[in-house]
Amino acid sequence: ASPLTVAIDGPSGSGKSSVSRALARDLGLAYLDTGAMYRALAWWALERELDLQDQALVAQAARDLPLRISTDPDEQALSVDDTDVTQEIRQTRISAQVSAVATNLDVRGELRRRQREIIEQERQRSGGIVVEGRDITTVVAPDAEHRILITASEEARLARRALEVHGSAGAEQLAATRDQVVRRDADDSTVSTFLEAADGVVALDTSDLTLEQVISAVHALVRGEA
Ligand code: C5P
C-alpha cells in the first residue's frame, strides 16, 4: 500500500488525542502528538528559567531543544536531554504557559520543520502516520491523504477536560478548567486555524458522541465510506 498520512486537528478537550492514538494503533501506523513537542519546549524553557516573552531567546531554545519523542502509539514517551518528561509536560503549569511559546512564530517554524521530518521518516518506515495538533491539516501536512478537524461544543470540551484533570465535572471543576480550555484556545487560535475546518478538511462534531463512536466515524472517513 502507498504511504498514508492522517492529519487531525482540534481544540483542547476535543478528544483528538485519544482518537488519534486509537486510529494509529488500529491501522498499524506511527503516531505523533505535536502538542507534546510544544509542551516539551515550554517545560525546558521553564526549567532553564528563560523569560517566555523573550522571543529570540525562546526561538533559540527551540532550535537547541534536545528532544526525543516516541512515535509508537502504545508507548507515549518523550525526553528532553535524557530526562523523561512524559508526565511533567501534562502538569497544569505547563498547560497554562505553553501558548506563550507556541505563539512564537520562529518556534513554530522550527517545530514544524521537525514534524515534517518525522512524518517523512515514518511514511518510509512505518507505512504512514497519524499526526495531531492545531495546524497539521493546514500547514504541517496540507497534502495528507486524510485531513480531519475534530470539534465539540465548548460545554462538552469543558466537561471532558474537567473529568480528565479533576475526576469530576461539577461547577467548581468546570470553573477551574475554563481558563485552561477557553483562554488557551483563544491564544492558540491567533496563530492557527482550528476552530473551523479549512478548505478540503472534513469536520467531525463529537459533542454528542462517545469515544467509540468518534473512533468508528474516523475509521469510516479513512476507509472512504463517509
Ligand atoms: O494538544 P495539546 O493541548 O497538548 O497542545 C498543547 C499546546 O501546544 C497548545 O495549547 C498549543 O499552544 C500548542 N500547539 C500548537 N500547534 C500544534 C499543537 C499544539 O501550537 N500543532
Polypeptide structure, described:
- The mean pLDDT is 94.
- With 226 residues, this protein is an alpha/beta fold.
- The protein is globular and about 50 Å long.
- It is built from nine helices and eight strands.
- α2 packs across α4 (92-102) and α4 runs parallel beside α8.
- A hairpin with an 8-residue loop joins β3 (67-69) and β4.
- The strands form two sheets. Strands 2-6-1-7-8 form a five-stranded parallel beta sheet, sandwiched between helices. A three-stranded antiparallel beta sheet has the order 3-4-5, with helices on one face.
- The chain has helices at residues 16-27, 34-47, 55-64, 92-102, 105-125, 136-140, 154-166, 171-188, 211-223; strands at 4-9, 30-33, 67-69, 78-80, 83-84, 128-133, 146-151, 202-205.
- Residues 12, 34-35, 38-39, 98-99, 102, 133-136, 184, 188, 192 line the site of cytidine-5'-monophosphate (C5P).
- InterPro entries: Cytidylate_kin (IPR003136), Cytidylate_kinase_dom (IPR011994), P-loop_NTPase (IPR027417).
- ATP binds at residues 10-18.
- It catalyses: CMP + ATP = CDP + ADP; dCMP + ATP = dCDP + ADP.
- This is Cytidylate kinase.
- Its main location: cytoplasm.
